[in-house]
Amino acid sequence: MIGLIIVSHSKLLADGVLQLAEQIQNKQHCQIITAAGVDDDTHPIGTDAVKVMEAIETLADATAIILLMDLGSALLSAETALDLIDAELAKKVHLCSAPLVEGAIAITASASTGASIDTILNEARQALYPKQQQLNEANDITEKETPAPSSFSEKAMMTEWLVQNPSGLHIRPAAKLATLLSGFKAKLELQNNEKRADAKSMNQIALLQVHQGDKIRLIAEGVDSQEAIDAFNQLAQQHFGDNISTSNANSLIGKAAYVPSVTGFAYHIPENSKLCTFSYQGSKHELETATQAIKRLQRQLNILADSLAETYGKEIANIFHGHSVLLDDDDLIDSIKQKIEHESITAYDAISQVFSEISEQYQQLDDDYLQARFIDIDDLKNQLLMSISSASSSPLVLSEPTILLTHHLGPSELLHYNNANVVGIALAQGSPYSHTCIIATKMGIPILVNLGEKIDEIPENAKLTLSVATETLTIEAPISA
């Protein structure tokens, strides 16, 4: 088993990278933990050699441990940690210079196949190459690192597949394919037109830049060639693990003639406001109130996730299971406790402040996908505050097709407004990468985000037309300038 430790100045960043890597992780062969940030609520950005040391010791049973660092001082912390641990354990540790995100994905994908440490580190060192090649910035990559075509005899076997995945062979399907084929002894090469790659390497598969509609070819030669071909064909028929609308190899791919729009009447979702005014009842009482609210919400989220799995599938259920796990974070609980004890504030205000701070940190991230997670944080905050206030939302009664209007909409709020007459959602802000958008799409509800503050001026019950195709929300009468 290979251990991977993500060493970052930001715990939020490390957790985000971990979340990405977990999508392709085989825990039998690869364990991943983080050693990120410092225990200082005022200045949480930094690295701690002791945290890194403890992380290494946690993975002491691994055959090899890889430390992946984000910035220079993270490397210093990693090197200091090596001086603090047992010399024999230190021999297992490898400091890797690969970029944090690409390196973590490459290491996880390769380690999850049971590859050797040398192969894993080599994959990590080449992790930037696919991106550099796509951006024509790969001139500094040596020929030795460039995938070399293999030679095959007349005994080689071949199979072809027309890729139907809308996003082609992106990170997850490429990792699944490399993981599957790495278990075979045969020499395997994947081809996309004139491009060739080692079919056991996720990085090299990425170099093929396989898009929807491309015909890829697998060539195999060796003792278990037929088995490799059969395994490839089976995974291909499952679209390499992607859930796409085409369900079997007999499906035909075409172009939609049009994307229908929806028409409904405007309904402005009321804004959240402070539900109650509470007085401070002592730190013990307030901490118990906060703890119980978090535990209640965790139970509710897990129950909700299990019910959604049956209706919308595991992908949607995992969003809410993830929210439950987030609430179990020791640092989160400790931050709320510190607020209550040191500032003598109520559980309501402590939760509001801590979650608002976390939300703000997410909003400062450059990565659009990770930045969108602030919506989930705000959603959890609102649910906790409602729980403390013993407040509940009345079911939405709609008699006509309706388009919901608001600024932000969290995943749990979306489910609250799940009504047969909700035909569309229009948000002033939000993010196309949010879980809200993912769930709405799964529910078949068209949604537009980032429409701006002008939606506040749309009259209640105005007749609207929402078109995802043109990304427009049209009303019967123009909005005043």
Automatic annotation (TrEMBL):
Subunit annotation: Homodimer. The dihydroxyacetone kinase complex is composed of a homodimer of DhaM, a homodimer of DhaK and the subunit DhaL.
Origin: domain of life: Bacteria
Coiled-coil residue windows: 280-307
Species for this entry: Providencia vermicola
InterPro entries: DhaM, DhaM_N, HPr-like, HPr-like_sf, PEP-util_enz_mobile_dom, Phosphohistidine_dom_sf, PTS_EIIA_man-typ, PTS_EIIA_man-typ_sf
CDD domains: PTS-HPr_like
Residue ranges of every copy of the HPr domain listed in the record: 156-243
Full protein name: phosphoenolpyruvate--glycerone phosphotransferase
Domain PTS EIIA type-4, residue spans: 1-135
Any one of the GO CC terms: membrane
